[in-house]
Amino acid sequence: MHQSKLFVCLLLAGALMPASYTSAASLILLGMDEMSCAAWKTKHDPELREPYVQWVRGFLSGHNYANQSKQVGEVSSATVATFVDRYCADHATAAVSEAAMKMSDQYSGRNTPIIR
After folding, report:
1. What percent of the chain shows pLDDT beyond 70?
2. What is the rounded CA–CA span in Å between residue 73 and residue 43?
């Protein structure tokens, strides 16, 4: 149980790093070794998906920290899993991180990428 808390803390720390869709520097996201939608789809057991779900929740928390006027509200793990399922079904070659970015756009009410 302590390892999972450490894992979540590390994911949150990575998500808190400033991010921009149009940044001149390339965006560096820290996550699992395989963040593709293809990898997500192979993990049918909720326990195997849990690290991805926690990573997305950490990413959304980072969004809230960076954009306090346009926050994502409380989102359950099931909502995250459903969103990533749908996103990956529609975008087979995408990454879970792209689903997280889209979710932050839609659930914050901003519905546009963060521009710096």
Report:
1. 72
2. 27
Q: Name the one residue in this structure whose structure tokens are 């995250």.
A: 80
**39-74 residue pLDDT tens:** 999 998 889 999 999 999 999 999 899 888 888 888
- Cα 90 to Cα 31: distance, rounded to the nearest angstrom: 22
Residues in the chain: 116
- pTM, 2 dp: 0.73
Long-range contacts made by residues 75-84, C-beta under 8 angstroms, separation at least 24? Answer: 75/103, 75/107, 77/50, 77/53, 80/53, 80/56, 81/46, 81/49, 81/53, 84/37, 84/40, 84/52, 84/53, 84/56
Whether 16 and 75 have beta carbons less than 8 Å apart is answered as no
C-alpha to C-alpha distances, 99 to 31, 40, 46, nearest whole angstrom = 13, 11, 18
Spans of all domains in the chain: 33-116
